[in-house]
Every structure is written in structure tokens, then in C-alpha cells.
Amino acid sequence: MNEPVRNAHALLRLSYHQFELVDRGMDGTSPPTLDAAHANGLVAAQRGAAVVLASIHTGYVDLSVDLHDHAPEPDTAPWDDVVEISLDAPHGEVRAAGLMSNPPQGLPVLTHAGPGTYRVRVHVRGRDTAVDQVATDPVEFYRLSLWPAPAAPTVIHKQTDHYGATLRARALSHPLTHDTPETVLPIRSDHD
Asked: What is the count of structural domains for the chain?
């Protein structure tokens, strides 16, 4: 079994249905929100940044992180959706934060082995609880598992929540009109 080299937990404040994983120096270059996140209903990345989609509009989510040296076995039982992507971290200082928010206290740099490419496995449960609402107490729970690894295609481990299905259906009805999934386009909510 691949035990984490580090794990941590915090409450993360988010807005506009999303939070980011952003490498130092990359937060001013282009928004890390991608239409590609709608394709799997949960997460997408571009060089130096990723976006994770939440169903609450604004508020707090419960976030835990596990940092590994090698890929851990998938643990899907307690989660509604589990999606794994690659993230290129050129500076090696990726942190989780909400839009227009500072990273929460207690979370380490997520790219613990320094600059390079990582796999990010995003686990979530509770997104069908308070869709489009403000959550002062967490109703959505996320776990991020990261480890250094070469770039690879997205892996869908589990997809069962209604909110993710809605996002995937939206992506199918409005497919990307660009050459690559890395094209940056802001995600817009019906409530923005």
C-alpha cells in the first residue's frame, strides 16, 4: 500500500462554483477555468493551473489532501465522483485556493516533489446537497491525491452525482469549438 508522505485538512472558501490549484507565478497569466472541466463534470487543467467544479455558488467546502510518491490505489467507495488528471507544475509550488481568496491555513504546497508533472485524483461527495446555494457550513467534501508522474489522459474512476451529470450533458450539447482541450474559456454559471 502506498501511504501518503503527507496529508492535511482544511476548510476552503470558494466562489463562482469553483476552486483552483495554481502554481506560483501562474495566477496572473490566464484564468485556470476550462470548458474541459464540464466534459468530465469535475476537474480540468492547463499548464500551471487546474480548476475543480463545485455545486455551491459560494461558501466553504471540506478539503483534505494526500501527497504521495507513487500512485495510490483508487478508493472510490465513499465518493460520488472520482476523476484523475495530469497537471504540469513548472514552478513546483501549487496551492489550493478559492477565486479571490488566499489559500487556507494548514494546507501544504501540493507539489511536494518540486517542479514537474503530477497526477491529481479529485474525489468529491455532497455536490447534490445545496446546488447554487451559499454554504456557510460545508456540505461538499473533497479529497485531492497528488503524486509525481508523467502526463497521461484523464481517468474517470467514478461518476454518480447528478450535478456532474448535468455539467457533462451541458458539455455534450455545447462541445468545445477549439482545437485543444487546454483552450482557456471562463466557466459561466446561470447565476453569475
From this structure: 1
